[in-house]
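Supplementary Note 2. Why include the ligand at all?

Several targets in our set were suspected to adopt different conformations when bound, so apo predictions alone were not considered sufficient. For every target with a known small-molecule partner we therefore ran a joint prediction. The input for zinc ion is given below.
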Amino acid sequence: MSTDYAVSALAAGDTVRVIAARTTRLVREAQARHGCSPTVTAALGRLLTGAALMGIALNSRERITLQISGDGPVRGLIADVAAGGHVRGFALRPQAERPLNSRGKFDVGGLVGRGFLHVTRTFDTGQPYTSAVPLASGEIGDDLANYFASSEQIPTVVAVGVLANPAGVLAAGGIIAQLLPGADTETIEVLERGAASLPHISALVRDGQTPEDLVHRLAGGLAPRVAGTHPVAFACRCDAERVMKAIVGLGHHTLAEMAASDVDTEATCDFCGQRYYFSPAAIREILESAS
Ligand code: ZN
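The joint prediction is reproduced in token form.
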């Protein structure tokens, strides 16, 4: 299977920015790590794809976290992206499921329900910056477009899609087009027509269309030129040391219980499902160094 990547492009005399990505492997890995149901795979996959698209311009000290919380059966979805196209994420209830909707599609909106999208930008120094917008439909693409329009005042077209069946993820990808200062009304109309006539992104990816092809499908009438190519992959930043710090945060009483136990303490990274084991002797050592 072809590797995942994203491309960024400028169009209409540099008044439109277009970013497109193939994310099939990313979504497949998330599904496998978390054992997601088909509809959760579609929902989480769309959010991971959105994160991948939003993350291509990050430097090594920044990251973006997208958090969806809703009253639907999945309760919440989290995706986070760091420089280098390192994307990770999880669902609060990965096994949640909904029947297909009346159009025979995954009912992602019903799975998510009503709620909020929180977008947090984290920098190496200074406070993280979070903005929250009510969910537009819970279908993820609409919600991201609504975030850009209402929170960043950037008119944005977003399409993210996952093609999956009970056997697994067949294809996934997405595209974002944003109007930059100076864009004229004709440009907006061309983009809107392109978005309206765009087939499902995941079907295009399944048929072998590359991110460059997706850019031309959406913005071909605006003379796009690809400005950069960027890697995209599932990658987590957890390690035993970070997990140990989280365990220390549980407090002296809990640590003492773990140290007195005759079995290892198991801790699992929410983002990637990696399990870490700490022996009672290792926990005792932490207790002693803390006292
Ligand atoms: Zn992890």
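The first helix runs from residue 24 to 34. Residues 236, 238, 269, 271-272, 274 surround zinc ion (CB under 6 Å). Comparable summaries for the other entries are listed in the accompanying table.
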